[in-house]
Amino acid sequence: MNSRQFSKLVSYLSKNYQIYATQEENGQVVIDELHDAKKAVLDNRLPFYSWKRFFVPECESLFEYDGVSLTPSSREQGKQTVLLGINFVDLKSIILYDRVFAADTYYQSRRNNLLIIAHNFLPGPENNLAHVEYKEENLKQYSFDVFLAAQENSVIGHKKTEIEYRVFAGSEKGEKVLRESGYKDYQRIECLGLLSEDRSGSAMNVFRDKLTNHHNPKIWEELGRRCIECGKCTIVCPTCFCFRLDDTPSLEVGQGQRQRCWDACFYQEFSEVAGPSTGSTGSPQAGSGQAPKFLKTTAEKIHFWYYHKFARIPDEHSITGCVGCHRCYQVCPVGIDIKKVLEDVYNS
Ligand code: SF4
Ligand code: SF4
């Protein structure tokens, strides 16, 4: 697919879908509504924020209540949405959302309205994602509708020349938009979203072991002294999807709605539960006035964050809870670098 054919595809999509795409704004790549195909940026730079909010919104209403009667909030029936420019790195996080929210009807209604157009990136002088391996033969393990595989020599760094793509349709929906937009030279593959990482003998297995059975408290105590619990890393992380439930009363007595909103394990109330407080021995301290918490210190919180990504998620979902995007380091005000932490864990 060349740039003229790409413009034709975008023009077809704009008549039938709302399109969000990666675009450049003040030297940064952001995700915004697309009105002109030429503004789409499909290169080796990641958008500052990931695509998470399209799959798991920052806040969503689950149901409204009026006394004891509950009315489910209306599911999104609006215009279908195209997500154009999901890079190969962030594509992995979609497999995780699909597994975690497999039985969640709110997620499923939203997901059915999305058409995913993903792409790879090529080695270049400004490619800081060289550690992420792209293999065309593995594409069917991911989940997308259309995949644009940029061909060698068509991108240099993030300077676009004439970009040529090999095109894959990963679903019936993807095949339909390609066909209806007049593009025929695509390869149909059946995307199964079955990516499963074999950890035996790998570094990931070592992380899992060191984060569970042989965890070295000194690493987390040192990080706990630096971390200020701002939660920025969780906001930008594509694989942080933890949430809290808020009841928001309206002005009418007994009425309101329950919302599901992003939360972060670094925040004070994240692991707080109702009941008598527990002391350092774990025994209840009735009348202390403080609710019990599972994560009390910053060291415990930061250890939990790594444990969740590199031990619990892989155990439950067969893939690592980290796509290697490095966004958490870019936003951390105290410079905690996930690569360095993992090196320390590995060598501990
Ligand atoms: S590198 Fe950091 S921000 Fe990116 S997925 Fe891993 S933990 Fe999340
Ligand atoms: S961004 Fe850095 S300081 Fe803030 S919570 Fe995350 S690790 Fe801690």
UniProtKB/TrEMBL annotation:
<dbReference type="GO" id="GO:0051536">
    <property type="term" value="F:iron-sulfur cluster binding"/>
</dbReference>
<dbReference type="GO" id="GO:0046872">
    <property type="term" value="F:metal ion binding"/>
</dbReference>
<keyword id="KW-0408">Iron</keyword>
<protein>
    <recommendedName>
        <fullName>4Fe-4S ferredoxin-type domain-containing protein</fullName>
    </recommendedName>
</protein>
<keyword id="KW-0479">Metal-binding</keyword>
<dbReference type="InterPro" id="IPR017900">
    <property type="entry name" value="4Fe4S_Fe_S_CS"/>
</dbReference>
<dbReference type="Pfam" id="PF17179">
    <property type="entry name" value="Fer4_22"/>
</dbReference>
<feature type="domain" description="4Fe-4S ferredoxin-type">
    <location>
        <begin position="309"/>
        <end position="341"/>
    </location>
</feature>
<keyword id="KW-0411">Iron-sulfur</keyword>
<feature type="domain" description="4Fe-4S ferredoxin-type">
    <location>
        <begin position="215"/>
        <end position="248"/>
    </location>
</feature>
<dbReference type="InterPro" id="IPR017896">
    <property type="entry name" value="4Fe4S_Fe-S-bd"/>
</dbReference>
<dbReference type="InterPro" id="IPR009051">
    <property type="entry name" value="Helical_ferredxn"/>
</dbReference>
